[in-house]
Design goal:
alpha+beta, binds zinc ion, 7 helices
Amino acid sequence: MPATAVDTIPSLKGKVSPEEWQTRVELAAFYRLVAQHGWDDLVGTHISARVPGTEGKEFLLNPYGLLFDEITASSLVKIDFDGNVLQESAYPVNAAGFTIHSSVLAGRPDVECAAHTHTVAGMALSAVEGTLRPVHQKALRFYNALSYHPYEGIADDPDECARLQRDLGQNDAMVLENHGLLTCGRNIRSTWALLYNLEKCAQVQIALEAAGGEIIELSDDLKQSTYAQFQRTLKSNASFGSKLDGWESSLRLMKKADPSFMH
Ligand SMILES: [Zn+2]
């Protein structure tokens, strides 16, 4: 088998805590899932997760220069909120990635993971005047719960952090206007599920606008009550642990297809 870029990266299994290793494997899986769906952007965009046992002060980001499909548990780069790289790595982290992800994680102690993409549908949605239209079931998950952050250029200015935090507020999903999509969550799997649903909504909205027909509008009461149904379902599904969000199934498929993300 030909050598890959990550073959030279020594495994961190057994060298970091079991909790950190589990987070690394799950975060690497998240990158691979995004690649599998075609939602990656060469070496651009980022997904981050806090390192357990560091009082929330350290997080993992992708090694800048690797495709998402190449990312492994051991290749993820550990950094702190001052941008210091805390482990030896052959790859740097991206400045804009650091700004966006450190803002979300620092501003929201309840959040363990954040994801950002540049998909065609996400970028299209982000550049159209107006908000996500609450006219189908999936969009109602985000009814009155989607934030918007105006574009300020490539996000390498630390001053933008406070504005990113202000605009995200207490929501777990945000449109980075003229740029792309962002989700965050209490764990890696919920951040993935949210990204999946927001991406689908972006695709639907673009299709709706292209179709150009008369749209069936929903009443405010129905939008609000369906949003509440989503919240109740999320809570009750959580009691079944891993079975109902598709995460374990996705991981099983990935382990079968290409288990190298667990290196
Ligand atoms: Zn971006």
